[in-house]
Design brief:
The chain is of the alpha/beta class and about 525 residues long. The chain contains 20 helices and 16 strands. Strands 7-6-3-2-1-10 form a 6-stranded parallel β-sheet. A 6-stranded mixed β-sheet has the order 11-16-15-14-12-13, with helices on both faces. A two-stranded antiparallel ribbon has the order 4-5. Strand 4 and strand 5 form a beta hairpin. Helix 1 (about 20-25) packs across helix 13, helix 5 runs parallel beside helix 6 (about 160-180) and helix 12 crosses helix 13. The longest helix has 18 residues, at about 115-130.
Length: about 525
């Protein structure tokens, strides 16, 4: 349990603070290891950081008791209680996987068709997080996934219809709020129409303003009108919103990068569109400033300065490849120097810190954590199973009975294990998402001899060799299983029967198996448009 930490009213006025303390509140940082270390203590005590982000890849998460103890140790060192943040979206993006409820992807939630269950899902996730000491979840994703080739959003989105995305985003926002967890709808102004992963490079969306307003911006507008208190920005260039322009001081650098300014670093987008035109009054958080979309063109300390200039309140630093926590201290020192030199506005800093502190008070940071909801855990897991079962979608054809000894070709090993338990005579062929020559040889030898072939496809637009291999099988005996993007079914139109489960989380795979075994019907509805627009795989 996290011990109570006082939050004196006198300390809420940032004008009484030192510059070092105020600048530190802008920083939401990652750290390494599963224990409270001297390095983490230095970040909290000397850099006065406003919050921490937990990652499994950084070794922060081993067991639930260990997480609780680590959070308590960190909070005990903070003068002002820390944001303790995590990415626990459900589906493919979760950091906690053991001892908590792992829900299906957002697209599966939308396919299941219940706003009430979506709200209950967020309430369940939030309740579990809060009991562990977390107070901030980087969710929900309210990008409209209008590009079938999107490599980073996909099933993390609720679908391709902006109203549907807005409705489900609002449902999750309400659920998190009821649980006392601050959530950050993301990624403003929209990451759904990109075909490049912003972890690796800088995506660009060249849609006209009218199209952006009708699609990308619509869910964010709905959440702003409802009163959302925080929002995360995207590292995406949108020229129609002005994100390709340059401020005077950094025009030389921008000219070297073709004047492409990601929205996170663009005043025209953050201060202009989000704050002034859309009227957002809450907390603006950046996506991680060490992602490739930023780091390939800007130094990280410079990016932190640009993000603050653009209007961000919280500068987020994630566990991205190629960077260590030391870069966060460099960025902190750089911002301090810029404030001391008069290059950055202390008035703007005070406004940001006031927003941060007001939300910390509102969400009760520093209060004792409630006990872990062990009594409710079974109910939460039953809800996850129900959503998964309701989401399984028959994309085309009529599902035949499952043979006693089907051949399953799958890039997801867990599906093979589940089928083997249910059908001991089943033949399981586990292949790589990008099939090897051995995968090809074995598949082409065994598939013609099987009476029924189940083919699990996984994001075929990413893996052309997988698409080629699966497309070479005799279609009359094949049942397609989209284990990630449902667009796989449109990439293999020759396969007569295709099911979608919208992700490979255990509950989704178990629900898919229940449908294959004929124990439950496929009652989900496809939450994205078909590929009649010509943007197919």
């Amino acid at each position: 349990m996290t011990r109570p930490i006082s939050f004196p009213a006198a300390e809420v006025d940032p004008r009484a603070w030192s510059l070092e303390e105020k600048v530190g509140q802008l920083f939401l940082v990652y750290f390494e290891g599963a224990e409270f270390s001297p390095a983490l203590e230095e970040m909290i005590r000397n850099c006065h950081v406003g919050g921490l982000i937990f990652y499994s890849i950084a070794g922060n998460i081993q067991t639930l008791p260990q997480v609780v103890q680590l959070i308590a140790a960190a909070q005990a060192q903070a003068r002002i209680p820390l944001w303790i943040g995590i990415d626990q979206e459900g589906g493919p993006v979760v950091r906690l996987t053991e001892g908590v409820t792992v829900f299906p992807s957002a697209m599966a939630v939308a396919a299941a068709g219940s706003l009430a269950k979506a709200e209950a899902m967020a309430r369940a996730v939030g309740t579990e997080l809060k009991s562990l000491g977390f107070n901030l979840n980087f969710a929900p994703v309210v990008d409209v996934n209008s590009n079938p080739h999107n490599p980073i959003i996909g099933i993390r989105a609720f679908g391709s219809d902006p109203k549907q995305v807005a409705d489900y985003g609002l449902a999750l926002w309400r659920g998190y709020r009821q649980a006392g967890i601050l959530c950050t709808p993301k990624h403003f102004p929209g990451h759904g129409d990109t075909d490049l992963d912003s972890h690796l490079g800088l995506p660009r969306v060249d849609r006209p303003l009218e199209a952006l307003q009708a699609t990308e911006l619509r869910p964010f507008q709905a959440l702003i009108r409802a009163g959302t208190e925080a929002m995360m920005t995207a590292h995406v260039v949108m020229p129609a919103l002005g994100s390709a322009s340059a401020t005077r001081r950094f025009r030389e650098r921008d000219s070297r990068t073709q004047s492409l300014r990601p929205a996170t670093l663009a005043p025209e987008v953050v201060s202009g569109w989000l704050r002034q035109k859309l009227g957002f009054k809450g907390l603006v958080l950046t996506d991680s400033l060490t992602m490739g979309a930023v780091a390939r063109s800007y130094g990280i300390p410079e990016a932190a300065e640009l993000a603050f200039r653009a209007g961000a309140d919280v500068l987020l630093f994630g566990a991205d490849p190629g960077f260590s926590p030391a870069i966060q201290k460099e960025a902190y020192a750089h911002l301090l120097q810029q404030f001391r030199a008069g290059h950055l506005s202390v008035e703007q800093l005070d406004r940001s810190v006031e927003r941060i502190l007001n939300l910390k008070r509102r969400y009760g940071l520093g209060s004792p954590c409630p006990p872990f909801p062990s009594a409710d855990l079974e109910e939460h897991q039953a809800l996850a199973r129900q959503i998964a079962q309701d989401s399984i979608t028959l994309l085309r054809g009529s599902l035949p009975p499952l043979a006693p000894d089907p051949l399953l070709i799958t890039p997801v090993p867990l599906l093979g294990d589940l089928l083997q338990n249910a059908r001991p005579a089943a033949q399981i062929l586990k292949i790589s998402p990008e099939p090897t020559p051995e995968d090809w040889q074995t598949t082409l030898q065994r598939a013609p001899r099987a009476d029924q072939v189940l083919v699990g496809s996984l994001d075929l637009f990413r893996y052309p060799l997988q698409r080629e291999l699966l497309g070479s099988l005799p279609p009359e005996k094949v049942i397609g299983l989209a284990l990630g993007s449902p667009y796989d079914a449109f990439a293999l139109p020759q396969i007569p029967v295709y099911l979608a489960c919208y992700g490979s989380t255990p509950v989704s795979l178990q629900a898919l198996l229940q449908v294959l075994l004929g124990r439950i019907p496929a009652r989900g509805r496809l939450p994205v448009e078909s590929l009649s627009s010509g943007r197919g795989c």
